[in-house]
Amino acid sequence: MNPKKIAGEKAVHYVEDGMTVGLGTGSTVYFSIIKLGELVKEGLDIKGVPTSIQTEKLAIDLGIPLVSMSSVDYLDLTIDGADEANHDFELIKGGGGALLREKMVASISEKFIVVIDETKYVTQLGKFPLPVEIVPFSWETTINTIKKLGCTPKIRMNQDASPFVTDNQNYIADCYFEMIDNPAELNQQLNMISGVVENGLFINMADSIVLGKENGEVTIIS
Ligand SMILES: O=C[C@H](O)[C@H](O)[C@H](O)COP(=O)(O)O
User: Fold this and answer.
1) Residues lining ligand 1, Cβ inside 6 A
2) Is 28 annotated as a binding residue?
3) Which fold has domain 3-121+203-221?
4) Global pTM?
5) Least buried of 20, 78, 115, 182, by fewest C-beta within 10 Å?
6) What is the pLDDT of residues 159-218, one digit of tens each?
7) Inter-residue long-range contacts of 145-154, CB under 8 Å, 24+ positions, other chains counted
8) Which of this chain's residues are annotated to bind substrate (predicted)?
9) CA of 19 to the centre of ligand 1 (A)
10) Which atom of ligand 1 has the smallest separation from the CA of 29?
């Protein structure tokens, strides 16, 4: 059993006719989006708001009607993956580089459902390097400032050794903290640095975590 598939598909049970739904990015929510595509073909009436160009393309291929975020005041529900989640529902996101749009979409969602496999449910955040979206202008200065918060930041690179560029034309600094003692404080400290656009800590945003397990079970934590 694929725990990502189990979690992704289970989360779709939250979706109801008439909803505007935030569509996250990544290999777990992929299964939610595939399932939504099937349900739309069977008559489910929803509108999606994609969190990345990748998800937008997938949703279009599947025939899921889309609207832009700017055309709605709020979303009924967002389903998205995460790289780590702790027991206080604090998350690290951005492994795929989509954290900025994901955070914007989650911030106006009535309900935010996180789909993960059990390996990502941790007692302390930080093993996964925290992605921070920064502007390309003088990125060296920005990562030097970030470093003072106690991590080793590395600019994310593509296989051809060029910097990875986000959908918003920015860079990602992957910040190796190992352990994050106070995620809420770090979230604020990072976002106060000039040159930082947004960081991958999602605090007080998630409502439920749908946890897929290797043995085929799924647990919903609310
Ligand atoms: O930027 C990417 C997103 O935050 C993803 O939701 C996150 O990285 C989890 O992705 P996956 O489900 O592929 O592990």
Assistant:
1) 24-28, 80-83, 93-99, 102
2) yes
3) Rossmann fold (3.40.50)
4) 0.95
5) 182
6) 999 999 999 999 999 999 999 999 999 999 999 999 999 999 999 999 999 999 999 999
7) 145/193, 145/194, 145/195, 146/173, 146/175, 146/190, 146/193, 146/196, 149/175, 149/186, 149/189, 149/190, 150/177, 151/175, 151/176, 151/177, 152/176, 154/129
8) 25-28, 80-83, 93-96, 120
9) 23
10) 12
